[in-house]
Amino acid sequence: MIDIIKETEGAERIAIMGHVRPDGDCTGSCLALRRYLKNAFPKACVTVFLEQPSELFSYLDGYDEIDPSFLEKERQDVCFSLDSSTPDRLGDGLRIFKDAPKTICIDHHISNNGFAQINFIDPDASSTCELLALMFEKKYMDTETAKALFTGIVHDSGVFQYSCMSKRSFEIVGELSEYDFDRTKIIDETFYQKTYVQNQILGRSLLESILFMDGKCIASSVDRKIMDFYNITYKDMDGIVNQLRVTKGVEVAIFMYELHRREYKVSMRSNGKVDVAKIASIFGGGGHVRAAGCTMNGTVYDVLNNLSLHIEEQLREYDD
Ligand code: 5GP
Ligand code: MN
Asked: Which of 47, 93, 179, 214 supports an S-S bond with 17, CB 3.0-4.6 Å?
């Protein structure tokens, strides 16, 4: 555990950053920590440097103050890295992080080897927000902080569904529910609700998905032409891989979208037998046992051939 107040006391400028393509846990943890530090140190300048998160999270306090430009010239006294498994995943934030005289890393990715001066990495936690909740002192917490932490836990646990939810995680959710905010609204509007076009691309991905390896693997992909046709970004395809995963009989679901010609962002989900973090890390990515990702080169079929070899190998070992 880190004494966040002690480590930031006296700092005039505090930077908070998370990983590229921020999700609910990344956005929630950055904004929760910002609010908490502002409550504790009203005179400090606390800045969240982060790629623009989805509009879905605009109800969180501090959303409009996020700096997605990373152009800050002033040196930061303390810099936090949240929910990022490697320094590279900080994207343009890495420059600010490297310049800071004091760095703190808080994360729950198993592949994180603790790249800051002070590290708190717990792969058993549901989310980075859970770790912040553990460390936050009640007297600097408020409804806005609780809302942001709740959002992160909801998103990284698939609404409390995944095995990453422990007794401790549920206890923290219980404590957060004592604050006065609309939990159902957050779950409905940020997790389940889809725009019409998001549902269209989900439907299309399911329709065009292929089953292979005797129905143990399912895969689907979206290329640039389709993304341009529907006028969508990666944010509109969140959740597709999870829907693929719940196909009966499937052990591993793969969803990919084209970043550039012959370059794909790959998302993988496992139902338990296969460690997809291990496979993602072979291709320079990472994540968790049941949810991981990486970027791969080649055609869709090249990518699937490469991944299949490792999935097959793990399934064989599991059955032996
Ligand atoms: P998603 O499939 O939802 O994008 O990501 C699932 C998990 O894998 C997340 O915890 C995410 O941080 C991690 N992940 C996804 N892509 C990458 C990647 O390229 N590199 C690393 N290190 N982790 C990734
Ligand atoms: Mn996370």
From this structure: 93
CATH 3.10.310.30, the chain: domain bounds = 196-319
The fold of 196-319 is: Diaminopimelate Epimerase; Chain A, domain 1 (3.10.310)
| pLDDT tens string 225-236 | 999 999 999 989
Cβ atoms within 10 Å of 278's Cβ, excluding its own: 16
Q: Where in the chain is the domain with CATH 3.90.1640.10?
A: 4-192
Cβ contact 132:34 at 8 Å? no
Structure tokens that stand for 15 in this block: 């930077």
Q: How confident is the model at residue 74 (pLDDT cuts 50, 70, 90)?
A: confident
CATH top-level class of 4-192: alpha beta
285 CB near ligand 1 (under 6 Å): yes
- Among 21, 88, 89, residue to substitute to test ligand 1 (most atoms within 8 Å of Cβ): 89
Residue type at position 306: N
| CA separation for the pair 87, 80 (Å, rounded) | 11
C-alpha to C-alpha distances, 320 to 11, 121, 213, 271, nearest whole angstrom: 56, 33, 17, 18
Residue 67 DSSP class: B
